[in-house]
Amino acid sequence: MPITLQALFAPSSLAIKFALKTLLGGGLALWLAMRWGLEQPAWALMTAFIVAQPLSGMVVQKGLARLAGTLVGTVMSVLFIGLFAQTPWLFLLALALWLALCTAASTQLRSAWAYAFVLAGYTAAIIALPAIGNPLQVFDQAVARCTEISLGIVCATASSALIWPLRVEQQLTGQARQAWTNGLQAASAMLGGEDEAREGLLDSLGRIVAIDTQREHAWFEGQRGRQRARAIRSLSHTLMVLLRIARSVRRQWLQLDAHEAARLAPWLEQLRTQLLDSDQAGLLLLRQRLWDAAHDQQISPAEHYCLARMTLLLDNAMAARQSLTDVEAGRAGRSTAQGLAVHRDWSLALLFGSRSALAFLAMSSFWLATAWPSALGGLVLTCVVCSLFASRENGAQIGLSFLRGILLAIPVALLVGQILLPQWSSFAMLCLGMGVPLGFGALGMAHPRTGATATSYCLHFIVLVAPLNAMTFGVASMLNSALAMLVGVGAAVMAFRLLVFRHPAWLGRRLRAATINDLVRLTRRDLRGADTWFGGRMADRLMQLARHAGELSNHRRKRWDDGLHGLDLGDELVHLRMCLALAQVPLAGADRDYLRQVEAVLAQGPAAGREHRLDSASARFIEALQQAPASDPLRLAQGAVLQLNNSWRRWCRSQEDADGLA
């Protein structure tokens, strides 16, 4: 069965519940707005559909973000009208700059609260643009829009929280177990060096980042939701460290000679098997046996480093199992881990903001040149689409989905708004006429594949029908508004098509530069939360690199391994600094000198011919470590220095393989 027919005529029980809750929340908002005589009740109804989410915590957070963005946008609209009402071009330029700033900020925030900046951008346009012809009424219109939008937020939130509530924190348990299982499987695959280890790593990182994002919504679901959110934060941090340590074990394994590898092969197989079994008692027993084997006087230093890292891997596997238990039990646990950081690129954000501003200015020029009264509605819609999708890589595709939604809404609105409603005269009949089409739209909103088109259909159906206490009907007016909608969305889609900032080679260079900058900062950053800060940002970059790797040739695709090399180098750097902190022995400044030299080498970046720049510094520092009193942390620090040097060599050689000696 096609996806659309399945969503509309064979929906799941969850989709039916979501549609009913959305209709009840929207109907209540519309009734109250008309009962209280608000100027445009359609805004209350539209808001209820805009903030509708299948999970209650998501509705609360999105509603709060929308409310905050609406208030800021309202203030800015009054300010713009007060300053530039007599100079239309300056007014439009100021509004374009505000739209660009909000788009850039929403791109950088990378959380659910980014929606506040989206609303701040297009709310200013929604209020200020219609008031440009009568600036003295801008304050009254701002108050009216805030009241109507706030009413829709409250009604949608109450409907979602009281009727069949589906809490985010309850859904997190299953997602957490799946992320934990995938993390252990990916760690086991990396130990074996299978070809699918890279896909397993990226899949596991994607699940970790996704569940850490969902954690924000659970904060709005009471004390239990906040406790589970803290446990999710601990699990995300532990799984991220687990994956990086698994890669470090594999790197250390590759440094063994054939005889050493043969002696440690049984331990490696037991470790891989135990990770897949994930039995806590078995993990603890194997950990003790590995620790004893690592202190055998007959093994080589390379074997000791490898066994010690296996022990550390088991420690994190047990910590991940405890974090999962805390998530399932709904308790916070004892971890003080911070949330995952994300990659931020202000230059890319400013480019996305510029795309939004240019689309708005192009439509503004069309409005001023033609003096078409309905073009104002299209200009408002351009602001809405640009605010929502200018920062998306698939913005053009989503914009086309909006166009499809408008095309579907036009004939339905014509039937309901111009043929049926003129013959009916009660609120009950209004609910019947609008409820049936909106009910099918809400069912489509519940399905991920049809959500964008269905949302556009619902919103534009409401705009075209425009329910009021004293309605006026006119086919010409409705079709004129529909044409303006198509022109407005079409202008935004055209801007998304023409202004593309997604060239894979350019993006790869930007991400590599950001990785090098983070590595430089990692040499002197406070160790508290350093692994979470670096790991989260690198996970974000690796997923961006993976999405675009298929667009390059096989020869050029080697550059996309920069992310993995940077991840390995940062992992060894954090491991070295932690070992030195645990050792707590004076090294006469040798550690500071070494980190400064590492920082200087990293700042220049990897390139062919630079692979030996850390050799002398590493040799001197290892000699200083050997002269200090022997301890396990210092022995591990020596192994970290060797691996740091080897990781740097591999990264430089990969640049030579990709670009040649030139």
Give a brief rundown of this model:
The protein is mostly helical and 662 residues long. The protein has 25 helices and no strands.
Keywords:
662 residues; mainly alpha; 25 helices
Give a verbal description of the structure.
The structure is a single chain. The protein is mainly alpha-helical and 662 residues long. It is built from 25 helices and no strands. Helix 2 runs antiparallel to helix 3 and helix 16 packs parallel to helix 18. The longest helix is centred in the middle third of the chain and has 32 residues.
Q: Which regions are unreliable across 5 or more consecutive residues at pLDDT < 50?
A: none
Helix/strand-derived category reads mainly alpha
- Strand count: 0
Q: How many distinct helices?
A: 25
- Mean pLDDT value: 83
SSE map:
Elements: H1 3-9, H2 13-35, H3 41-50, H4 56-84, H5 88-109, H6 114-131, H7 138-162, H8 168-192, H9 197-218, H10 222-253, H11 258-277, H12 280-294, H13 301-329, H14 346-370, H15 375-389, H16 395-420, H17 427-445, H18 451-465, H19 475-498, H20 504-522, H21 530-548, H22 562-583, H23 590-604, H24 615-627, H25 632-659
Helix pairs in contact: 2-3, 2-7, 2-17, 3-7, 3-18, 4-5, 4-6, 4-7, 5-6, 5-14, 5-15, 6-15, 8-9, 8-10, 8-11, 8-13, 9-10, 9-21, 10-13, 10-21, 10-22, 11-12, 11-13, 12-13, 14-15, 14-19, 15-19, 16-18, 16-19, 17-18, 20-21, 20-22, 20-23, 21-22, 22-25, 23-24, 24-25
